[in-house]
């Protein structure tokens, strides 16, 4: 039904680099085999045939003969002989290189063991020296501690004796002050009582004097009032008498009136003078009475002032009593404060003793710390020198690792060559399969099958060569596995060495942490030790980075080479199993 006019959905697969020369289906129509001019063969599985496949019986007999052309067999036999020769040469070279590698590695291991033993001896000697120094310092410090304890005990005894003496002296002073306070209080009370009694007596005397004076003044005023009343009565009597005499004498003594008028006028004038004098006396008496009233008022005011002053003095006395009570309270408070201050003084003295003890202990602790810091500085310097030695060793290891890398690269090139040979063998096997498939086309014609089998036999040789090649492949696999085990053992030993170095680094880091703790206690040496610590950490990080890079690169290269070898072995095993 060619050409196919219908459009069929298909997918393109670029499997061959050149044009396809032949295509063939298998007997059961399950696989399609294609060949190209570049010698590549591709086997395709056929699916979704919709029942068009050939159904073979279970008792179908396949031919045991191999159909090969004579020329192809000759070429393949020659290629197999060349490959065997090349494999033998490669095995000899690989054995020679492996022996050289073993010798070089053994020499390196011996050198490393010697270096390690030397370093261990140096470290042991340093450790013994450090322990001796430590024991000597310990004994010296114990002697100093004992001496300091004895001196401290003597000082404590002396301080206790001095303190007891001072306390007794202070207690005596306190007793004297208490007695003086009691005396002053008793004297003040006596003086207050005396002053109160004297002031009361003075007040009573003043009151009695003023009362006597008031009585005298009252008596004088009464006398003056009686005299005034008597004078008024006498004057009124005289006036009545004069009037009666005038009336009588007007009638009786008119003649004598003129004569006596002058006498009467004179008498009147005298009486008027007396009246004037009496009036003057009355005015003077009234003035004296007013003065006496003012004096009485002043006296009353003075009495009121005295009463006010007495009240004020009583208030002052009450205030003084209150002040005395307040002073007594203040004295009690002061005594309590003095007692509290004495207790505080005792506590302060105890604290001073404790501080002195702490200071002495700190001095005792600081001195060995300073000694330890000096020792640690020496150890740091020694560690820096050891680090320089380790860096030199690391550089040597890097050089050796670079040599090993070069050797591994050479081994990798040889492995690539072996892989190329294996690929050539696989290609030959594939050509054999193609020739077998082409010979299987003539299974119906026995003559052509015989010719094809003869050609294959001539081209590829007999079965002994294949058996020999299988034995050689088995030997090569055993050699590869042995090399692989040796490389794994060398990797494990290198890892152990790396772990030992890491443990040493951890011990060094612990020592540095202890140094940092001591540095925190002493502020003077803090900066120098921090700088040294930073330098050490930087060197450590650089070494770790270098080691990690070297380990990662070596591990990756070894893993890649091992994976390549395993894949090549798998590729070699698959066609062998197919054959």
From TrEMBL:
WD repeats: 13-54
InterPro entries hit by this protein: CFA-57 (IPR052993), WD40/YVTN_repeat-like_dom_sf (IPR015943), WD40_repeat_dom_sf (IPR036322), WD40_rpt (IPR001680)
Gene3D superfamilies linked to this entry: YVTN repeat-like/Quinoprotein amine dehydrogenase (2.130.10.10)
Regions crossing the membrane: none
Keyword entries, A-Z: Coiled coil, WD repeat
Keyword Coiled coil: yes
Coiled coil region boundaries: 73-227, 282-435, 519-546
Protein name: WD repeat-containing protein 65
Organism: Aphis gossypii (Cotton aphid)
Lineage of origin: Eukaryota, Metazoa, Ecdysozoa, Arthropoda, Hexapoda
